[in-house]
Amino acid sequence: MSIQFIDDPEDPRVSAYRNIRERDLTGREGLFVAEGEVVLRTLLSAASLCSPLSLLISANRLQAQAGLIASVPDGVPIYAAAQAVLDRLAGFPLHRGLLALGRKPLARSVGSILAGMPEDCVVLACSGIGNHDNMGGLFRNAAAFGAAAVLRDDRCCDPFYRKAIRVSVGAVLRTRSAAAESLEALVAELEAARFEVIALSPGAREPLAGLKGGARQAVLVGSEGPGLPPDVLGRLRTVGIPMAGGFDSLNVAVTSALALHQLSSVSVR
Prior knowledge:
Elements: E1 3-6, H1 20-26, E2 31-35, H2 37-43, E3 51-58, H3 66-70, E4 78-81, H4 83-90, E5 98-103, H5 110-115, E6 121-126, H6 132-144, E7 150-152, H7 162-167, E8 177-179, H8 183-192, E9 196-200, E10 206-207, E11 216-221, H9 230-233, E12 237-240, H10 252-263
Parallel strand pairs: 1-4, 3-4, 6-7, 6-11, 7-8, 9-11, 9-12, 10-12
Antiparallel strand pairs: 2-5, 3-5
């Protein structure tokens, strides 16, 4: 497989990788940048819902990553650059030395994803998650506990932000996902598809430990601090986690992991 060497950070062949942080904030018109070996292996795997468009690798890692390079589909260009060139191109020290440009899967509606779900499954629904670390953690938890999809409202951040993908250890690239136009629309779509929507809230009277899996269930989590709106909580089944020491809540990603584990049918291997 041919590797193209880059010695100028202004080379137009790698323009998509230039000033990664700034461009992450403005979006990439259906594209994304993935970073790190674990994430790239997921992108190149059969489980990925996304398509690789190119790879950019630090020249001093080529030998160590021979296996990964061999898995790149024909026609996908591989670029290599000295670490100093790579750092100037990215706009910051790129310690992992492995990047890929990918294309997001075609956008789907919440309803189209839910329509094909089995009768016994769990999905994770998110509202107002603006922190990319938390978004990545939610996708990682969903994949780890076998959730069939991660669904979002319009106030959630983009899970294809580079840091969210990295925190998810690539789960964003292999997990079905869709966004609704609002939280109300998201709940309505879930209920129309016969999902029981279970909202996690510090003020809930029903403990998580009593929750049983089975049938179609959706775990709904909100942003840290404000949480879910009172009017939404007022018409849903609410579940909470009893705590000691004056605490009333956990990080949203941790909370989702506990709830998904409670409902999960994943067995110990």
